[in-house]
């Protein structure tokens, strides 16, 4: 479910609405986190915020002591609740440039030491794309259960490059419009210390229209059967989480995996499967610096529609690429990031990585897609250690600026 792409001088910015639960949830989730920032100074949002994220754990003065000190439910005070409604600038290769307006709350409930999030957001970009999303994230029974629910929809004007590494390298696209409605839910239960497992459901109703027909290359026209399509998928989901803090991580491992099966028996137009797995690691090097790393794998079945296969850069697996330019049925990416506290509430990051796409996992190394860049961070919420910042990333024949809440992972 892509967005369009456009180019500034030496800056490639593209956008793509993301079909997965975490992908849609990040916008509203980021706005919910903005609530804490209001009480501490200022807040931004959109770009892979806290793991849905996902994915994505935010932190700015990344090496500072985590702010999430365990607190007994009986000692919690009303000021644990934060709320805000504000406009937020947006720039990201996943969504384009524009703004988001939303309201969000971050609070502790149900005896949880981890903050719940409720967020509502509206997004508009300079491609006349828009999206609306509502998300709820909850930790229940002393974090025995983790529940995320999201609903959203919008209209997205995007560029379609075709499928495969050769199509991405060709760098020729056609404009298309996609109208989408999305509903998703995830419920996990702690089955062992730090290990959570459960179910995930995702419903996606997608309508695609072409603006150039016939296109300059035959493969730039998606199959007619996929232009009006409904995907209803149910599957298994799991998390492994040993992070010392959800929002300002300096040590631990955070791994996620999901395997969804779309089936006509539950309302899908076609039968196919799709799997994703990610693992993040965090290591404190000294009192002021943290080394973080991330590995990602995606694989989609042969009958998966073009909007639900693996899209390089769609979840900040590597920054510097317009999501959707490189897409295929398999993807692998690895990256590392050095995060350092500079002074006051400011910090900086340096990152680099490499990955590839292909029709299967055995061929992803045939498309070598490197990326790297730098970023600046500001700790907007001292209460929860939530940061805002900007990244500049360079990929293969492309580059991009990202304004974000939190870190890429």
Automatic annotation (TrEMBL):
Subcellular location: Membrane
Protein name per its UniProtKB record: BamA/TamA family outer membrane protein
Comp. bias regions, Low complexity: 53-63
Stored InterPro entries: Bac_surfAg_D15
Membrane in keyword set: yes
Native source species: Brevundimonas goettingensis
Highest taxon of source: Bacteria
GO CC annotation terms, alphabetical: outer membrane
Domain Bacterial surface antigen (D15): 223-409
